[in-house]
Specification:
The chain is α/β, with parallel strands linked by helices. The chain is built from ten helices and twelve strands. It folds into two domains: 109 residues, Leucine Dehydrogenase, chain A, domain 1 (Rossmann fold); 144 residues, NAD(P)-binding Rossmann-like Domain (Rossmann fold, 3-Layer(aba) Sandwich). A six-stranded mixed beta sheet has the order 2-1-3-5-6-4.
Length: 287
């Protein structure tokens, strides 16, 4: 991450934006956001990260309600656990059942979700990829999977396949999606390789592949992979996970999560500051 803190004019009026998670040391969000702030005299903000335990959430959000905080981004494992601390929830985030962005308006905390829209923006921006009519498989059924799944169905994919370690979470997500869309949805576990063969796009939304699971992959068998597959891993650090490396060997097209991180950050920046952010500038800070 490139350090842009030295170019910020921090004073008594500076507002704090932050990201919380566990783990959090891998995050590149502060560099992204602070680069935007340093390039605009009208943006008197600083962006920092916090490593939290679940039992610290209440006291943390009590502090967030103060005048010093403007917003918070939420990452693993708290996207589904912050609802009790919110005063309002955007309709889309409520339907998804996960929040990745919280805005403080004079002590009123409102939850949003920019993950799914960030994913769609990045795959279009980086690959000019059309989702319409595609068969898409999602690995995982957590907060990121929920948001991405909703956005996929919004963009008229033909079929969605949800594969998770425990099929119950896949079934729960399918049921929620079926309440809003009529798209064909199948579920399975992470060893349902037969469901991946005919998929056009496979998206890893699990944390398997990032620290401390950097030497692992969410799937253990790669015989199903071909040059017809597009593998998108939302992990951005490392830039090539075991999953991406193995699929690339077999001729698949790959993309890591740097674009999604930049795009969801760009959308969160608009919520925090009411200013448009530069996708390219934010992505340039992810190294």
């Amino acid at each position: 991450m490139k350090n842009s803190l030295t170019s910020l004019n921090i004073n008594g009026s500076t507002k704090i934006n932050a990201v919380i998670g566990n783990p959090i040391k891998h995050t590149m969000s502060p560099g992204m956001h602070n680069k935007l702030y340093s390039g605009c005299n009208d943006l008197n903000f600083i962006y920092i990260s916090f490593h939290l335990e679940e039992d610290e959430l209440k006291s943390f959000f009590d502090i967030v309600k103060t005048k010093s905080f403007r917003g918070v981004n939420i990452t693993v494992p708290f996207k589904e656990k912050v609802f009790p601390y919110l005063d309002k929830v955007d309709l889309k985030a409520s339907n998804i059942g996960a929040v990745n962005t919280i805005v403080n308006n004079n002590g009123v905390l409102t939850g949003y979700n920019t993950d799914g829209d960030g994913f769609v923006f990045s795959i279009r921006e980086e690959n000019n990829y059309s989702l319409k009519g595609k068969t898409v498989a999602i690995l995982g059924a957590g907060g990121s999977a929920k948001s991405i799944a909703f956005s996929l169905l919004e963009h008229k994919i033909e079929k969605l396949i949800i594969l998770n370690r425990t099929e119950k979470k896949s079934q729960d997500l399918k049921q929620n999606l079926n309440n809003h869309y009529k798209t064909d949805i199948e579920v399975g576990n992470l060893e349902s390789y037969e469901k991946l063969i005919d998929s056009n796009l496979i998206i890893n939304t699990t944390s398997i592949g990032m620290d401390p699971y950097i030497d692992r992959s969410p799937v253990k068998n790669f015989e199903w992979v071909s040059k017809n597959h597009f593998i998108y891993d939302i992990i951005y650090n490392p830039s090539k996970t075991i999953l991406l490396k193995e699929c690339l060997k077999r001729g698949a097209k790959i993309q890591n999560g740097k674009g999604m991180l930049a795009a969801q950050g760009m959308l969160a920046h608009k919520l925090f500051t009411n200013n448009e952010g530069s996708y390219k500038l934010m992505k340039s800070q992810i190294v």
